Every structure is written in C-alpha cells, then in structure tokens.
Amino acid sequence: MEKFITHIGTGVPLRRSNVDTDQIIPAVYLKRVTRSGFEDGLFAAWRNDPEFVLNQPQFKSATVLVAGADFGTGSSREHAVWALQNYGFKVVISSRFADIFRGNSLKGGLLTIILDQSDVEAMWEAIEAEPATPITVNLEERTVSYGSKNLPFAIDDYTRWRLMEGLDDIGLTLKQTDFIDSFEKKRPAYKPATLPIRS
Amino acid sequence: MILPSHYLIQQVDTQKEHETVGKTLAEKIWAEHVVRQADGEPDLIYIDLHLIHEVTSPQAFDGLRLAGRSVRRPDLTIATEDHNVPTMNIDKPIADPVSKLQVDTLRANCAEFGLRIHSLGDKDQGVVHVVGPQLGITQPGMTIVCGDSHTSTHGAFGALAFGIGTSEVEHVLATQTLPLQRPKTMAINVEGSLKPGVTSKDIILAIIAKIGTGGGQGYVIEYRGSAIRALSMESRMTVCNMSIEAGARAGLIAPDQTTFDYIKGKPHAPEDFDPAVAYWKTLFTDSDAKFDVEVDLNADDLEPFVTWGTNPGQGLPLNAVVPNPADFADSEQRTAAERALVYMGLEAGTPLKKIAIDTVFLGSCTNGRIEDLRAAADILKGKKIASSLRMLVVPGSARVRLEAEAEGLDKVFLDAGAEWRNAGCSMCLGMNPDQLAVGERSASTSNRNFEGRQGKGGRTHLVSPLVAAATALRGTLSSPADL
C-alpha cells in the first residue's frame, strides 16, 4: 500500500446525503475478479446525466470528494473504495460515514475524513466559487486546509501510523501468530466446524 | 453435567466482572474472542466462522497467492454461490460470461485452498445467510463474518456477526482473526405483541424509520423485549438482517429455548448438545449492564410498514400517504425526500395503497426462508395474482426450495400465476438476469430500496411477505386485511 502523509489536490462537491454503495458502484459492475478497472462503474447511473458534478469539466481532475452525510451506506462491497481510487480520488470528506465503508477505505489507503456538516457546507461553497482551490490534507498534522481555513480532524493513532507507513494489516497480524496459536489451543471443542462435512 | 473447561474459565471471569459492572451480550462475546489486546491498537478478534461467496472473494484469494499465504482454517470456512447465479436453467452453463468467470473463479479458489463449497445444483447451495443457519453452523456466542453486509442476520442466534470488505476477507483467510475497534452498544426494546398481519419485517422497517439509516453507526444493536422473544428464529433473522440498514454493522438477540430448539437436529448441531446449551445459557446481557444508548418501540401499535423512498429509513405504515417533502423540518431530509419522490415517480399525498405495482419479489436473505414462503402461500392459496403484475418467488436456498416443494407450496405459487425459481440473491440486488426494467415498480421482501438496486431505473418498495402476497393479488400495495 502506498504511504499517505500529505495530499494536495482540488475538490469536487457532491451535494447529496445517504450516498449508498449501490450508487457509488452498482452491482452489475461488481463482476470483475481484479482490483482494478472499476472506475467506469463509479456513480454509473448519475454519470449518465451531463449535469452531474463529476461530468463538469472544472471538476475533472479533482482528487478530494466532498460529500453529504452518511456516505457509503449499504453493501460491504470494497469495490466502492476501489472505484473511487481507480477513478483518482485520494480523499473523501463527509460529516458521517457508514462503518463498513469507512473500515474498507482506511484498509485500502483511501483517506476518509469526518468534518462537521457546517465545515462540509463551507467547503462546498468555496469549491463551487473556485473549483481550482487547492486543498491540502495533512495526515501527519491531522488537518485539512484550503484558502484561509485550517480544519483539524480526528483519526486514531494506530490507523494514522499504518497509513503513513503504508503497512499491510495482514503482515502486522501475522507477527502475532503466537497469540493466535495459543488462543486456538483453548477454543472449546463444541464450537462448530465446516469440515468434515455432516449432512 | 461436565462442562467444557473453557466454559468454566469464562464463568469465573464473568463472575468477577459481575461484582464491578455487568456486561452486555455483545461485550461478553467480544471478550471471549480477544486474541490480543494492546494499548493504542485495535483488539485482535478471533473469527469462529467465515462465509464466502463469489463476488467479494476473488481479489482476496489473489492477495493470498501473491503473498504466498494459505488459508489458516479451512475447517472454519464455507463457500456458496449466490449473488450472481441465475435462478432459471441452472443445469445449463451460466449464460453471462462475466458471471460465469466469477463463479468459476470461486470454484477454482476453493479447490486450490481446500475449502468446502456448495455450488449451483447442490442441496446446500443458496444465499449465504440462509445456508449457515440451516446447516446448524451458525450458533450462539460465535463470531461470524462474511464479505456481505447482511451477515448481521446470524446475530439472531446470539452471535456477533458482521459484514466485512474484501481486504478483511483476505485477512480472515490468512489469519482467522481481524483487528477491530470495539463497537458501542445500543439496546432496542420492543415490548408488546404484534397484531395479526404484522410481522418482524414491519418491526425492523419501523425501527429504521425511527432511528434513520445512520442511527446505528458505530453500534452493535441488541434487540430485546417481549415482542422479540415471541418471534420464531426465522423472524428474528429478518430483524437482525436489516441492522445494517439502520447503520449498525451487527445486531443480535440473546439465545433462548427457541434458539436451542431450532439448532437441535441440524447437520452441524453440537454432537454433545447439553454442554453447548449450558454455555449458550450464559449468553445474555447482565441485569446491571449499561448500554450506550437505548431505544424503545411499542409493538402493539405497529401496522404493516412499507417504504416510499430510496433508502430503507424512508418508510411509513401502509395506511399513510406519500409524504410531502415540505413537511420535513430537517433540510437534508427534505432534499432527500424531494429527490426520492422524483426517482420513485410519486406525488405527495397519494395513499400508499393506491400505488400500482408491476413486480412482486418474494425472496432474499431477509425473507426467503420457509416460513416466509408458507406465510405468502397461505394468502395466495386458491387465488390468482393480478394480471397487471408478475411475481417471482425465489427460495433462499436449495433446501428451502426442496422443503417448500415437499409441502406443495410450489404448486400454490404456480397455480396463483407466480414464477417458482431456484435459489439465489436474485432480484434483491439484480446482479443476475432477475432485474427490474427502467421505471418498473416492485413490492419486494428484500432489504434495500436504493436507486437502481433491483435494476437500473427500477423503483422498489420494501414490504413483508404478507404484504407482498396481498399486493400480488390486488395489484396495488395492500395488506392481508384488505383482501
């Protein structure tokens, strides 16, 4: 995973709440068996509308998605994170994220940042007034800044460290194999197993 | 009676904790599964069961291969094909080449890593959350995960069960654990008794309408109260299934005699049943435990519920009218309602019961079990569905289908003019050919009414199996009382 320390890019205002993962990437686009190539499915239904914000030329190269509340609700599909990343997004900002989506994004290196709804709305206005406004996301300092604004955001130390180091979660857990071995030794015998098959 | 040693250890621990402060059920299960705890790090949690399907696993297996890793516990892993499989002509090769590749990839991965798989045509194939419980491998006190958000279904057994992303699927395959932040706890107390014609689907739709699609974010919900205790296992699964629609990753119900009776006799029920039951009986929220949040709902007042909008929180009693967006005080909700009415092609003030339906879908991990089919068949028996609509009946699993056929339910559905299909997720998410056309309107027993969920441009009203059957007969959204 690529290290994430700071990112500077422009934003795109997505003035919608409850953007569920079926909107981020509809199910018919989930049939690939790779992690790449999902950008075509991103917001597929909405992108048919020429007025949709992603279709507007001034937002073409944006890398920071600024969305309404409850972003990423619904399905656990990590394809939603891949679609956003494959399209070019590095950061998503919202006042509330669905739990599974947020977990997936932080595993995969897409930084999801929670700001107050009033700060999100102020960002929408600033970006709409000047789409080229540079937005700086500093994970080390835990701040989002643009224009004269410098907004702190919260992220737990562990996740921040893992993202800044670009570390693979599995590799970290495999260092704890001794703990897993000893846990398994005391697992009770009546816990079910899928093998051997009983019918 | 001889108790397993683990049980005794837990018992002592729990007793000690008791003297200070009680634990909720979710906290007890969590504590029993902590592999490693360290300051400033997420807890490493052991996973008792990992369910796999074709859509969210291929990239995880690829990751294992790239890193030269194996599956740590094939004996705690089980796969089935459900999300994109066809529900017709299942004896022929899958027509859609992309779906076929995904299913073939799952089969090849299971063969390579030595995993149990139930493929199309096998009697244990079906929607992953129907398969686990019917095999008896879903049991109280377990941690259960799957790359599917409706894994919360298994919480009905008093298990901590939740959906995960593909990176986490890979993590569980490799380590049988997950690093997780401990969730907060929410109690939803449903007291009273349901009127005839009102079901557990109406309970959960009413809960989501009350707390919103984000209300459960960060929480594990425990459903409690007399109305919950009175539910069958399958009805409890319907409630827990839609926890994620309220934003909660997991929802659970303390196990009781209903739970034990359901598991007994299932293929993977504990061979040594009594010690297991003795342990299961310790799985309840202590009387002095504190939830972070409590929510109350009165079951006596509940009516059949239906959604009018494009998220599961946009629901109302069936006797209501389509709401006027202007009546929403919150600006975000007002905008969402305006958008939803445009998408749904509805006018404010229209009685919900006047809405004409094109397709009725009976099935899914929410309402595709035998009791759901029985309840709908009871209403349809000897009658014909409205000529203005089609009805798809898709059993949740091949076993459910066989059971229904043994009871003659297939004949009831076919005689009524409905289609009797093979098992799969089908029109719940429209990954296979079972989809709505643009502008087509469904009454669906599934779990999500998002824009385009059941097919691009399709319009979904979420309903119970009873409302689905009554609607199929009348052609407009209806409750059994309208017949």
UniProtKB/TrEMBL annotation, chain A:
Residues passing through the membrane, by range: none
Catalytic activity: (2R,3S)-3-isopropylmalate = (2S)-2-isopropylmalate
GO CC terms of this entry: 3-isopropylmalate dehydratase complex
Domain of life: Bacteria
CDD domains linked: IPMI_Swivel
Oligomeric form and interacting partners: Heterodimer of LeuC and LeuD.
Alphabetical list of NCBIfam families matching this protein: leuD, PRK01641.1
Protein name listed in UniProt: 3-isopropylmalate dehydratase small subunit
Organism: Actinobacteria bacterium BACL15 MAG-120619-bin91
Gene: leuD
